[in-house]
Amino acid sequence: MKTNGHQIDMNETVISIRNLYKSFGEKHVLQGIDLDLHKGENVVVLGRSGTGKSVLIKIIIGLLKPDAGTVNVLGEEVDKLEDAALRALRLKVGFSFQSSALYDSMTVGENLAFPLTRNNRDMSKEQIRKTIDIVLEAIGLPGTINQLPSELSGGQKKRIGIGRTLILRPEIMLYDEPTAGLDPITSMELNKLIVSVQERFNTSSIIITHDLTCAKEVGDRVAVMDEGKFIREGKFDEVFSEKDGLIKSFYDYNFIQ
Amino acid sequence: MSSTNEKSDKPVITAKIDGFFLHFYNIAAFVGRFFREAFRPPIEWGEFVRQCYQVGYKSLALVTVTGFITGVVFTEQSRPTLSEFGVTAWLPSLVAIAVVRALAPLIAALICAGKVGSSIGAELGSMKVTEQIDAMEVSAINPFRYLVVTRVMAMTVCLPLLMFYNALIGCLGSYFDVHAHEQTSLVSFFDNAFAQITFLDYTTALTKAILYGFTIGIVSCYQGFNASQGTMGVGKAANVSVIVSMFLIFIEEVIIVHVFNSIR
């Protein structure tokens, strides 16, 4: 299947989540989540704050353990992996944090080089520099290599955060609220970057957001989450064709914005 | 009424006891993980050297000043009593024994707990609450090996060096005071000072410094690595790192002194 200029292979599932449950004390955050991500596909998980969206992708990358259910990423069951196997899997899965999580004592160049040098210790300085230049060019910030994170704007930090994950050439990208806290113009640029990453690096992505514009721009498929469950799933236009309940409030909120 | 209270109190007490043992287990697991990770390649030599610079070189000025003042003050305080018995000639050896056996390890450790321990607690705490440690995890980097192992090793290696340096400066401070009052030469002062120091004294001091360095490193890294509750958690991590490190240093001091005195 071809969408927005990129190829989606509906026969190949890169992430498969079945019957996923997670609670923190008395708070039941995820209550039976099922989700498939196909190769080359961008799936947007939409939902209000506190509905468990970020918990979902933290379980996918193995930062949190589920209470029940299975998470299969590239053929591996994440919560059953030993440390070494989990690290090997993480090389294939990029994670972009809501806060960017850049190492504030390092320059942009050092931030990008850090995962590269730790995981490819044989790389020469020239190879590292060349890879950094390619990534900086891909994220549209070629002149920032010597800048510190404190000297960057919010949008630039998000881009560098994405660049830091891209440098390991992942097959899957997980974005946690990529446009949160950004102005509409910067958000639009970031949406374009997410689509260009998908096309240029041939990634499959899960994008966590509460931004309808982002969902419409970048998502091949949208899943709406409420109280730990998906209440609607499908193409953006299908999901938002019937505006009732939560869908209506989402639509109204974004319309007012 | 009382039975209701008993019923409602019981789970709170149980939870506190559970919490205490869970905390104790977590610390033991943290120390265990350190020993598992510390000797497994690849070792982060670059970060280890950077931490040695932070712990050792950047503490030198403070250690020099406090060591010198300790030597001078201890000599000044001891002189009146010794001169009553007409044995001011014992001043060099008295100061050397006090400095090497007790003062230098304690002073170097307390300075490092305050200066370096708080800084490690705050740095790692800040990295934890801003998700920088999680960012290492998801980039397939082992944050424990990069952040904890290097810092604990640097503290364990640098504190003995700082301790011996502190002892030397303390003796030098004492020499200046003794020289001003008793016109003793440098060679004569140090001959007298080190004549009474035994191999066991050096071993005791070295054991103390290694253990104190390891304690400060582990406590500060544990507090920082497990920080929560945003910026408040960072402050708490820095604060608790210093308090717990100092408390444990004094407990270890008592134990080591007892153990080595039983050998002596």
TrEMBL record, chain A:
Q: Kindly list the GO molecular function terms attached to this UniProt entry.
A: ATP binding; ATP hydrolysis activity
Do the record's keywords include Cell inner membrane?
no
Q: Name one Pfam family in it.
A: ABC_tran
Domain ABC transporter: residue ranges: 15-252
Gene3D superfamilies per record: P-loop containing nucleotide triphosphate hydrolases (3.40.50.300)
**From what superkingdom does this record's organism come?**
Bacteria
Q: Does the keyword Transport apply?
A: yes
InterPro entries given for it?
Answer: AAA+_ATPase (IPR003593), ABC_transporter-like_ATP-bd (IPR003439), ABC_transporter-like_CS (IPR017871), P-loop_NTPase (IPR027417)
Provide this UniProt record's keywords sorted from A to Z.
ATP-binding, Nucleotide-binding, Transport
**What is this protein's name?**
Phospholipid/cholesterol/gamma-HCH transport system ATP-binding protein
From TrEMBL, chain B:
GO CC, one annotated term: ATP-binding cassette (ABC) transporter complex
Show the InterPro entries listed in the entry.
Answer: Permease_MalE (IPR030802)
Bilayer-spanning residue ranges: 55-74, 94-113, 152-176, 209-225, 237-260
The record's listing under Pfam families reads:
MlaE
Q: Give GO terms: molecular function aspect only.
A: phospholipid transporter activity
**Sorted UniProt keywords:** Membrane, Transmembrane, Transmembrane helix
Name the chain's protein. Answer: Phospholipid/cholesterol/gamma-HCH transport system permease protein
